[in-house]
Amino acid sequence: MTAVPDDPSAPAVTAPSHPGARPGPPGEAEVVHDWTALTLPSNPQAASRFRRHTRDAARRWSLLPDSGETLEVCVSELVTNAIVHGVGRDVLLVLYYTGDSVLTEVFGQALDRPAIPRQARADWAEGGRGLFIVETLAKDWGSEHTGHGLLRVWASIAVGGHGSAD
Known about the structure:
The protein is 27% helix and 29% strand. It is of the alpha+beta class. The longest helix is centred in the middle third of the chain and has 21 residues, at 65-85.
C-alpha cells in the first residue's frame, strides 16, 4: 500500500492547461490545494480500502457529508471497474482537492476504454450501472489511454467544504 499525502503547508500548484494535462479534465487548469494517492493490488478486497482512503481525505478536507458521500460513491465505482475489468496487478487512485471540487483519477491496466452499457439506463438492469452513476454524480468524467495499456479514468466531483471533521 502506498499513500502519498501532500504537505498542507506547501503552496498550491496550478496544473497545466493542455489536452491530457493533469489534474483536471483535458484542457482545464485547476489550482490544487492538496492531494493524496493510494496504490493497491487489484483484488476485490481493495475496493473497501480505497473507499476508506477517500473518506479519510474528505474528512481532512472538511467536506460536507453529502459531498464526501458523493466522492466515495464515485471512487467506489471507478476502482471497482478497474478491479473487475482491468488486466493488471495494481490500481492507482489519485485525488486532487481544488477547494470547490475533487478530481478523482483511477489508473489501471485495460484493453478497452470504459463505456456505459446501453442497458445501464434501463430500470430492469441488474448491473453495468457504475459509469452511469459516475456520469450522473460528476460534473464531468472521461477516460484516456496513457500508453503501455494503462488507462486513466477521471471524474470531477463538485464538493462543499467546512463540514464536520469528526
